Amino acid sequence: LARALGVERTVLKKQMDKYGVTRAMDNISDEELDRLIAEFHADRPDSGLRYLAGRLRARGLQIQRERIRKAAKRVYGPGSFAARQAKIARREFVVECLNALWCGDGHHKLIKYGIVGHGFIEAYSRL
């Protein structure tokens, strides 16, 4: 909505707070929410909470994250999300000498403020 109006999100939020405008959450029953989450789970069994929230939003439903989490726990069973988080397999490499390989990364999270950070490290000293 902020993009459509051509204003920043913070400006829109302040104006909504000022005039008492709230985004109402949909009030569907727990049984209906469980049914929808089970349906989404059948389509994509490895889905997480963000995926479930997105699918609900795509259907025009605005549901609290806590309600989605509790419903997913009822449908999937306790501890199912923690068990699915597998360790990321990292590539192993051999660096023959100093300055043979450098690794770099960038951080663009603050780009809207004109702040971008980059970091580099020499890989031989990291072994």
Q: What pattern of helices and strands is seen along the backbone? A: HHHHHHEE
Helix content: 40-55%
Q: Indicate how many domains the architecture comprises.
A: 2
Biggest β-sheet: strands ordered side by side in the sheet? 1-2
What's the N-to-C terminus distance?
49 Å
Q: What structural category characterises the helix and strand content?
A: mainly alpha
Low-confidence stretches: none
Mean pLDDT: 85
Total count of helical runs of at least 4 residues: 6
Radius of gyration, CA atoms, in whole angstroms: 22 Å
Overall geometry comes to: flat
Number of strands: 2
| Strand content range | 5-15%
Largest sheet: 2 strands, antiparallel
Chain-wise SSE layout:
Elements: H1 2-5, H2 9-19, H3 30-43, H4 49-58, H5 65-76, H6 80-84, E1 102-107, E2 117-122
Antiparallel strand pairs: 1-2
Helix pairs in contact: 3-5
Structure description:
It is a single chain. The chain is mainly α and 127 residues long. The protein has two domains: 83 residues, no CATH class; 41 residues, no CATH class. It is 44% helix and 9% strand. The chain is built from six helices and two strands; from the N terminus they run H-H-H-H-H-H-E-E. It has a two-stranded antiparallel ribbon with strand order 1-2. Helix 3 crosses helix 5. The protein starts with a helix and ends in a 5-residue tail after the last strand. The relative contact order is 0.09. The mean pLDDT is 85.
What's a quick, concise take on this entry?
The protein is mainly alpha-helical.
